[in-house]
TrEMBL record:
<keyword id="KW-0021">Allosteric enzyme</keyword>
<comment type="similarity">
    <text>Belongs to the UPRTase family.</text>
</comment>
<protein>
    <recommendedName>
        <fullName>Uracil phosphoribosyltransferase</fullName>
        <ecNumber>2.4.2.9</ecNumber>
    </recommendedName>
</protein>
<dbReference type="GO" id="GO:0005737">
    <property type="term" value="C:cytoplasm"/>
</dbReference>
<feature type="binding site">
    <location>
        <position position="194"/>
    </location>
    <ligand>
        <name>uracil</name>
    </ligand>
</feature>
<keyword id="KW-0460">Magnesium</keyword>
<keyword id="KW-0328">Glycosyltransferase</keyword>
<dbReference type="Pfam" id="PF14681">
    <property type="entry name" value="UPRTase"/>
</dbReference>
<feature type="binding site">
    <location>
        <position position="79"/>
    </location>
    <ligand>
        <name>5-phospho-alpha-D-ribose 1-diphosphate</name>
    </ligand>
</feature>
<comment type="pathway">
    <text>Pyrimidine metabolism; UMP biosynthesis via salvage pathway; UMP from uracil: step 1/1.</text>
</comment>
<dbReference type="GO" id="GO:0006223">
    <property type="term" value="P:uracil salvage"/>
</dbReference>
<feature type="domain" description="Phosphoribosyltransferase">
    <location>
        <begin position="6"/>
        <end position="208"/>
    </location>
</feature>
<dbReference type="GO" id="GO:0005525">
    <property type="term" value="F:GTP binding"/>
</dbReference>
<feature type="binding site">
    <location>
        <begin position="131"/>
        <end position="139"/>
    </location>
    <ligand>
        <name>5-phospho-alpha-D-ribose 1-diphosphate</name>
    </ligand>
</feature>
<dbReference type="InterPro" id="IPR034332">
    <property type="entry name" value="Upp_B"/>
</dbReference>
<feature type="binding site">
    <location>
        <position position="104"/>
    </location>
    <ligand>
        <name>5-phospho-alpha-D-ribose 1-diphosphate</name>
    </ligand>
</feature>
<dbReference type="InterPro" id="IPR000836">
    <property type="entry name" value="PRTase_dom"/>
</dbReference>
């Protein structure tokens, strides 16, 4: 079973409240999504492999550490996942960035994929999938299946808010994927929105309705 890591750090919980408040502007919403994403990115890269490297400080020789092993690929699920890219790239600036375009049909709540452009060497990379909202889990399950179909083997998901139903669905469909979240909310409403949630993340990020 994949791990669920809930980052209930005070700074994250404080910022999450800003995202939830309906009066928060798109500008502030974007800034805070980016900040929370950098914290999630920090946590999700905790197990990166290191190797020793001989270096010289101004005062002498020593052995330092350097990230080694697999490279990283960041994959936002469009649109809302785009809001998380800058924050995660600030932590791993050398990462390649792929994109999966997907929207949820409002009637069926099933994901519809309209775009997919991924780095070619997915097998050689640790993949960090980004989407602020994990609701029914349909979009994330589909995105992970597409990544695996194209060769990805090591995938983790960063989501700001998640519903228990979505977490369960993803863990059942892809038990090898760890999920990093800022909070787990109560439930979904009849339209598949997370309650209490923060509303429609894409609309709030980009000022659309
Ligand atoms: C939202 C969100 C996820 C999806 C989550 O996207 O960003 O991708 O819904 O729902 P699920 O877990 O039930 O699949 P939306 O369809 O609103 O598209 P957008 O990002 O283009 O706004
Ligand atoms: N997508 C969103 O943007 N918000 C939700 O609450 C659920 C899906």
């Amino acid at each position: 079973m994949g791990k669920l890591i809930v980052m209930d750090h005070p700074l994250i919980q404080h910022k999450l409240t800003i995202l939830r408040k309906k009066e928060t502007s798109s500008k502030e919403f974007r800034e805070v999504v980016s900040e929370i994403s950098s914290y999630l990115g920090y946590e999700a890269t905790k197990d990166l492999e290191l190797e020793d490297i001989n270096i010289e400080t101004p005062l002498g020789k020593t052995v330092g550490k350097k990230i080694s092993g697999k490279k990283i690929g960041i994959v936002p699920i469009l649109r809302a996942g785009l809001g998380m890219v800058d924050g995660v790239v600030s932590v791993v600036p050398g990462a390649r960035v792929g994109h999966i375009g997907m929207y949820r049909d409002p009637e069926t709540l099933k994901p519809v994929t309209y775009y997919c452009k991924l780095p070619k060497d997915l097998k050689e990379r640790n993949i960090i999938l980004l989407d602020p909202m994990l609701a029914t889990g349909g979009s994330l399950i589909e995105a992970i299946s597409e990544l695996k179909a194209q060769g990805a083997r090591n995938i983790r998901s960063l989501n700001i808010l998640a519903a228990p139903e979505g977490i369960k669905a993803v863990q059942e469909a892809h038990p090898d994927v760890d999920i990093y979240v800022a909070a787990v909310d109560k439930c979904l409403n009849e339209h598949g929105y997370i309650i209490p949630g923060l509303g429609d993340a894409g609309d709030r990020l980009f000022g659309t309705k």
